[in-house]
Amino acid sequence: MKLSNLSPKAGSKKRRRRVGRGIAAGQGASCGFGMRGQKSRSGTGTKAGFEGGQMPLYRRVPKLKHFTIVNPKNFTIVNVGQLTDLPANTEVTLESLMAAGIVTTNDGPLKVLGDGELSVALKVTAAAFSNGAKAKIEAAGGSCEA
To answer: Least crowded by CB within 10 Å, which of 22, 28, 54, 71?
Structure first.
């Protein structure tokens, strides 16, 4: 085998299509672009997603209703008023609330909201607090840990 004997495999090389070189060449006259219209003209065509001036789908979609959030943040929610039955200086976590029966299902990390009143000092450990809940827990002498 010598370099002078090497040749590409049969069928691996394809000739470039030469358009606009007469009718006999197969792609003469309009070069395969049809008669008229925007797609037959020279230069760039339309951008991706262009729908002829109509509001394109990618701009219509957010305006429509009933689209679900792809990755929603789900929390197990407890209001401050539900914590009044607990004894003073108790450490409140999602597990302790489930054991006490205040929360029945684990829907995700614990979030404490500020509805209701609290008169007992508690050590609350949760993933998130509303501003009102944090103020009420600390006003009752408790602490909040995220």
So the answer is: 71
